[in-house]
Amino acid sequence: MRIAFLFCLLTAAAWADAGLTGKWEVLATPDGKSAIKLDAELKQDGRDLSGTVNSAIGSGPVKNATVGDPDLTFQFMINKYTFDVKAVAGSDEIKGTFKGPGLMKGTFLAKRIAAPVPVEAGAAEGVEVGTIDGAAYRIDMPKNYNGSVILYCHGYSANPGQFDTAKPPSPLTKAFLDLGYAVAQSGYSKGGWAVKEGVEETEALRKHFAGKYGQPKRTYVMGHSMGGTITVAIAETYPASYDAALQMCGPIGPTLSDFQDRLFSTLVLYDYFFPDVIGSPVAVTEDVVLAKDFTDRVQKQAIAFPDSLEAFMKWGGFKNEVEMAGVVSFYAAIQRELMERAGGNPFDNRNVIYQGTGRDGQINRGVKRYAADEKARAYLKQYYTPKGEAKIPMLSLHTTYDPLVTADSANAYGDLLRLNGGDANYVQRFVDRTGHCTFTPQETVNAFRDLVTWKEQGTRPAPGEQK
Q: What would the mean pLDDT of 216-229 be, rounded to a whole number?
């Protein structure tokens, strides 16, 4: 009798922890009308319930849930409409009633499509590599798995990433493995400005991980540089599937203006001061590559005209001509690849007034002006202009001096959040260092720990310097 009672208690506890996690097929039947088919992906953590409900006309989050045993209440949104559900939950069925906009009401029935396979902490260890829809991936499992996973998004690379089981984890990955976190990363199926691929293929990897290793207790997303952009895009696009995000040194302001103000303007002014080295900002020469010989050519051309170099360096805030040449070469390679990807030039500088060179009038009269291709602009807006909707805790790191992605980009994301009604889920920190993404593994781990505390305990980290 005592054994049976103990079994019931353990079963109830397990159900309360993750019993509703999984995919569900839903029929919402308004009184006197035909049933509406929906599907839902739910995530239960103790008495917390989150997720997404999908319909033919849109998707929306699950919120304001109260999980009892077996009583259940929650809300979900489709477009701007809110639906209230009261139901009784079983292991494979949720049955009850709903109320919608106006006088709409009816019955609610959900049946489980797929349940997660539980994974005990510490049960998995090792490295898994493979491909999902053409994108290579790597999953590192720790000896003492704590039940949570980090999806890592890498930065800009000319070629798709590849993984080898014989290669040991990076120092940063090892630091997270030592803390008990699994780490999963996609190499993306394409190189270049692969934000589209990064978002879609990281999300596909998350689903693969949950299907093979079980629904994680927590799912975090983080990334450096372009991976920071992907991190923000994932956090804004799939807030029900991720618990918190760590964005590091990424261009996360409004992408069209961010790239035009820094990347495109740098190329326009370099071409003004030193013509025909890169071709032009809208017809970058084919020999522009991310290689030392081309960077050396950019640097030598600039040194040959010291007055022009001084004005250009003053405008760009570069510390020296080596740094300047590296940034120009990198921007030129990105612009060429981006134009191929987007089908044209996404930038328009016809209304730009350039300033900060010491000879601004002369430059604004003589600089070349370019119109944008609207299809290219639409592509760059979609992949990816942030919406300014931080629905999960997001911590942002940036160095005090980054010549490639200036801190103005992270500031712009905070401004966008405030314009959209608040930045309660966004904290920005700095590391007092020169360079792009030059954080130590320990600084990154410390930031991540603060992010976890924010998620688990509701203690919002203080902005300021990251130690």
A: 97
